[in-house]
Amino acid sequence: xxxxxxxxxxxxxxxxxxxxxxxxxxxxxxxxxxxxxxxxxxxxxxxxxxxxxxxxxxxxxxxxxxxxxxxxxxxxxxxxxxxxxxxxxxxxxxxxxxxxxxxxxxxxxxxxxxxxxxxxxxxxxxxxxxxxxxxxxxxxxxxxxxxxxxxxxxxxxxxxxxxxxxxxxxxxxxxxxxxxxxxxxxxxxxxxxxxxxxxxxxxxxxxxxxxxxxxxxxxxxxxxxxxxxxxxxxxxxxxxxxxxxxxxxxxxxxxxxxxxxxxxxxxxxxxxxxxxxxxxxxxxxxxxxxxxxxxxxxxxxxxxxxxxxxxxxxxxxxxxxxxxxxxxxxxxxxxxxxxxxxxxxxxxxxxxxxxxxxxxxxxxxxxxxxxxxxxxxxxxxxxxxxxxxxxxxxxxxxxxxxxxxxxxxxxxxxxxxxxxxxxxxxxxxxxxxxxxxxx
Length: 439
Description:
Oligomer: single chain
Mean pLDDT: 96
Distance between the termini: 50 Å
Strand content: 15-25%
Number of strands: 12
């Protein structure tokens, strides 16, 4: 296995509470500058769902001194562009440019973040786009299945039960003032970080950040607290009825583990064995041996609180019940019996081998450093990542899976023709089967 070293990261605390992290990558004359703010959609109650996503998108709509097109043109003039991403736990605002244009790029980044305009026409345009996207998700079977499994896994008190980008009612109520209020309360230096990765010197970056972000002040509003409670602790099957559908979208899930879990690395190995690689048990069974599907995968949604564990696939209507049976059998078998030594060894090699491929650009490395800040991970977390993966053994995988997963509590959601698939699903004996209409 080829050697790999995560770029050395210099940490510089700033007087206003911002944590500055600088990583050197000198292979190319590029630099990625990212401001990461703790608190994404999970800090909002259901009536405000989607507000964090829309507020982040609205940063590209212009500043107090430039319209949206003028801001875009200013970035284009230096061969760059603004990128905003809002998830459950954070919002990141990034720009990548040539290293010799970093002063101009950081000036524009600071202007977009610290002096947004939130012009009403732009906010209304983004809201219309978001409402159209929500409607489209409801008509797409795969998206409908994803949103449905989240809703039926998590209790209503948990923000994860709803779509990340909100609902028609919550998004429809958003206006420029709501976006401006969220920005005022959440886009503050307390708990925030600035990550700069590329062909730069730490001292030069610190001086630059102090110039453009030194006057950034204020404290964040208190984050909303919640516990990731499951909607139910009993196995059940929900059929979201789509009469006449020739294919079923299947999701099987339950509450998983948080990003801070001590079982994080063993769960990575477990998931690779189950459904996280092309040679996983689920793929070999449902695709290669039985021909039920073109692909099936499993994943853990590691978040600040315990996110979802989900198995996803799509199959023909007539093999819906057999596919659910086989997927459930594989989960139970792996949790109860554990993986083989060969499976653990192959998964360790796979995850260690692909790790450097996920850190080839300044943007990829910056994103990982942002994770250190958002989840309060040790500074050397990614520097020792491959050693931690290679240190996982058979016993720790067994222990982790049994501590986190409860096969008897798995919830099954199937988006398909209820009339055709209900009775075969009842015959599986996995729990009550309920046919519901899409909402």
